[in-house]
Amino acid sequence: xxxxxxxxxxxxxxxxxxxxxxxxxxxxxxxxxxxxxxxxxxxxxxxxxxxxxxxxxxxxxxxxxxxxxxxxxxxxxxxxxxxxxxxxxxxxxxxxxxxxxxxxxxxxxxxxxxxxxxxxxxxxxxxxxxxxxxxxxxxxxxxxxxxxxxxxxxxxxxxxxxxxxxxxxxxxxxxxxxxxxxxxxxxxxxxxxxxxxxxxxxxxxxxxxxxxxxxxxxxxxxxxxxxxxxxxxxxxxxxxxxxxxxxxxxxxxxxxxxxxx
Length: 261
What we know:
The chain is an alpha/beta fold.
């Protein structure tokens, strides 16, 4: 059963975006172009019938445009619950405080990470009724345990995916193309956790294109990766494409820019 998104929260990029965390080595983002790309992202959602709440830019937190890391939206009967995270990157923890009000107005129930638990939403992939959670430098075992306890009570399964691959998040190189197919980099291709899914392996050098956004009835893919586009076409996918060049410079992908439910 598809998790079809009908609502989303985004945050306008701050002019301080270039001061954020990145290991991409692609230079500072062009803010004029970043704002155009962000508006196009919003327009795409709206054209697909998704109701978008746009939050003001928050210059104090350069990475705050990547709202996905601050919370996990959990579909429940008749609504949505939310789990507020505690980012592993200490410089981002204040973002959760800033997002809490917006989350509280839409969620039927709000849970929050406590104690030594760390989690960023970019490490969380929902497939059907199963959450896969990357455990790495941004999300720890204590964070996984807290999150798993909550979602299991809400009727979900939760599977840990520990990795040490020098990338920010699980979804940096792994995401859904539909209800039963994942696209991923080669480093995840033999993982037992994903053995029940169909898999497409991104061509070498185009790993960035593995962060795709499946809305439940549409598929959005980063533009500019021709070998991946050909791979998708050969496997029967007809995605929409969008330029993400300026957010790529800051280690950000398509899923990072929104909270969806």
